[in-house]
């Protein structure tokens, strides 16, 4: 995903990706062996403040933070053995959302922390992903409302023809990214995180060098190191990207032009969200999908409903079961030419001529040049191998002490907020608390109109697990058409689906398609994280009339053989009784 707007702590110093490997996931239920290339955001709001970083001609770096300064010499430490003392408690390579989350939590825990960034603070999520994409999607959502005469008439409103200014829309996305990037930078400086500018490379145990091209490198040491370098768009062989008519999501977010007809290669999250933007702005869209169905990573039932609402009524057609084996940019008055090949037979199938093509085929980990060979670590398809606690594993299968990897670079779950959660988990570990993140409790969302969200397993995945482990699976559903708030908004199209175990009430997965689905999913994700069971959460009280009652009805419709516990620890503080006398 997939495809979508979804993840990514990213630190890129050059135009060449750290890795030539790619990952194209089709499973948003997040089997951990298959990470998801969503683009989502897990930013934290903190105080604003400033510190300074200066570099002299001698190659020394002076970092000022909270009134103290420290000089670090490039020749201070050798590369062979771990140092006896450290410049920092924690060094983070990569200042994306994952690195930012780890840094702020480290400061809260009292760790002297530095973060190394070779590009710009905020990584993919803030600069080329979730943040600017949401700005574009906010525009597309409003355009859809204004363009829907039926929708407006239902409210008794009369609106003249809606239009837009392309540059104004692009500026809205760029200005938002700049603001959030500044917020992140200031929050770290205010809390005393040293921001070291340059490309970070591990040169030995607990040692990192960093620097800019043309300047001397600087070596710093830390008791613990976190790799948080993120990912870049993956472009398959045979596709020539010119950044103008054949583009990746990085280029598309600049919205330099709106083509009359654009082909989108990949129908996961990235592709779906951009189809929402382009069709709202007047483009015709053609999806090119290698698998036999659109939106292959979603729960099948949700995917079918989403196709009926998001694809079929709009100016979108599609080719499934085909590869785009060659794409040539528009030049010399000729359009973009796309050669399609049958995914099974590998025989040529068709040729398309379009105004533009967006490559939304996944993300590649940005790990080349990290110096992993200096500590005997070999990547797997470009991903840094880690265990369930994000500890890096070397070529011999042994843990590399004091070294961790989070976010897209480890491939466990390619979501920005997952990277941040992994970083926080690592900080908990290095400060003495054993902590292991439950990735099945991490939600994901696709910000189309209406939205799609999910947490946990899809129904096929749950049934496969049930067959292997010998338990039953039940499914409950509820419609947005029965929700007062959704009807008041004239947005009754939607479905919420619960997958659970009737024998013990365990929530296995929740999938939502409908108005504000991305916000609604968190009640379910928190329930999974806290271990809350169906028989308990159905006693939670929801304000009326709100969209949250969609989940209220969903949980109440589930049937568990277990009696409710009536204990606050099981309800996570949502609802409890004073004593058991009420039973």
TrEMBL record:
InterPro entries: Class-I_Pyr_Nuc-Dis_Oxidored (IPR050151), FAD/NAD-bd_sf (IPR036188), FAD/NAD-binding_dom (IPR023753), FAD/NAD-linked_Rdtase_dimer_sf (IPR016156), Pyr_nucl-diS_OxRdtase_dimer (IPR004099), Pyr_OxRdtase_I_AS (IPR012999). GO terms for molecular function: dihydrolipoyl dehydrogenase (NADH) activity; flavin adenine dinucleotide binding. Residues 88-423 form the FAD/NAD(P)-binding domain. One of its GO terms (cellular component) is mitochondrion. SUPFAM superfamilies: FAD/NAD(P)-binding domain, FAD/NAD-linked reductases, dimerisation (C-terminal) domain. Keywords: Chloroplast, Disulfide bond, FAD, Flavoprotein, NAD, Oxidoreductase, Plastid, Redox-active center, Transit peptide. Belongs to the class-I pyridine nucleotide-disulfide oxidoreductase family. Lipoamide dehydrogenase is a component of the plastidial pyruvate dehydrogenase complex (PDC). Homodimer. Part of the plastidial pyruvate dehydrogenase complex (PDC) containing multiple copies of three enzymatic components: pyruvate dehydrogenase (E1), dihydrolipoamide acetyltransferase (E2) and lipoamide dehydrogenase (E3). This is dihydrolipoyl dehydrogenase.
């Amino acid at each position: 995903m997939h495809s979508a707007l979804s993840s990514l702590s990213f630190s890129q110093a050059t135009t060449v990706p750290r890795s030539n490997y790619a990952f194209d996931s089709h499973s948003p239920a997040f089997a951990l062996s298959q990470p998801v290339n969503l683009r989502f955001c897990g930013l934290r709001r903190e105080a604003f403040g400033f510190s300074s970083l200066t570099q002299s001609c001698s190659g020394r770096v002076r970092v000022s933070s909270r009134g103290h300064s420290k000089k670090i010499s490039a020749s201070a430490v050798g590369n062979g053995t771990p140092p006896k003392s450290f410049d920092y408690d924690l060094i983070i390579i990569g200042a994306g959302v994952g690195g930012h989350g780890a840094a702020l939590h480290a400061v809260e825990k009292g760790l002297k922390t530095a973060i190394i960034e070779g590009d710009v603070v905020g990584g993919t999520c803030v600069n080329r992903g979730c943040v600017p994409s949401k700005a574009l999607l906010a525009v597309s959502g409003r355009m859809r409302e204004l363009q829907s005469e039926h929708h407006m008439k239902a409210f008794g409103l009369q609106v003249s023809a809606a239009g837009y200014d392309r540059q104004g829309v692009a500026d809205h996305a760029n200005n938002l990214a700049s603001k959030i990037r500044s917020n992140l930078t200031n929050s770290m400086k205010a809390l005393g995180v040293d921001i070291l500018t340059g490309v970070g490379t591990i040169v030995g145990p607990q040692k990192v060098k960093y620097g800019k091209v043309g300047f001397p490198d600087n070596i710093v040491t830390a008791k613990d190191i976190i790799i948080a370098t993120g990912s870049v768009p993956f472009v398959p062989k045979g596709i020539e990207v010119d950044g103008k008519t054949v583009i990746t999501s990085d280029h598309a977010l600049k919205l330099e032009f709106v083509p009359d007809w654009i082909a989108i290669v990949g129908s996961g999250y990235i592709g779906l969200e951009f189809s929402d933007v382009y069709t709202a702005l007047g483009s015709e869209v053609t999806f090119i999908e290698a698998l036999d169905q659109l939106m292959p990573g979603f729960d099948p039932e949700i995917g079918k409903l989403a196709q009926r609402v998001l694809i079929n009524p709009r100016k979108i057609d599609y080719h499934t079961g085909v590869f785009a084996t060659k794409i040539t940019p528009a030049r010399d008055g000729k359009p973009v030419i796309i050669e399609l090949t049958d995914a099974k037979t590998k025989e040529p199938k068709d040729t398309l001529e379009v105004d533009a093509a967006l490559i939304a085929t996944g993300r590649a980990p940005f790990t080349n040049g990290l110096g992993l060979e200096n500590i005997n670590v070999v990547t797997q398809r470009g991903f840094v191998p880690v265990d369930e606690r994000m500890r890096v594993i070397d070529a011999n299968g042994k843990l590399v002490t004091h070294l961790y990897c989070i976010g897209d670079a480890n491939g466990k779950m390619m979501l920005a907020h997952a990277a941040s959660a992994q970083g926080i988990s690592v900080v908990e570990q290095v400060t003495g608390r054993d902590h292991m993140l439950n990735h099945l409790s991490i939600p994901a969302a696709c910000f189309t109109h209406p939205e799609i969200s999910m947490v946990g397993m899809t129904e096929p995945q749950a049934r496969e697990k049930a067959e292997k482990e010998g338990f039953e699976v039940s499914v409950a559903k509820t419609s947005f058409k029965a929700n007062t708030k959704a009807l008041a908004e004239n947005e009754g199209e939607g479905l919420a689906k619960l997958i659970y175990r009737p024998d013990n009430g365990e929530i296995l997965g929740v999938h939502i398609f409908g108005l504000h689905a991305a916000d609604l999913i968190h009640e379910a994700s928190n329930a999974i994280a806290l271990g809350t069971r169906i028989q308990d959460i159905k006693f939670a009280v929801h304000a009326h009339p709100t969209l949250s009652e969609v989940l209220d009805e969903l949980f109440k419709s589930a049937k568990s053989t277990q009696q409710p516990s009536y204990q606050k620890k099981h309800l996570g503080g949502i609802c409890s009784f004073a004593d058991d006398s009420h039973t």
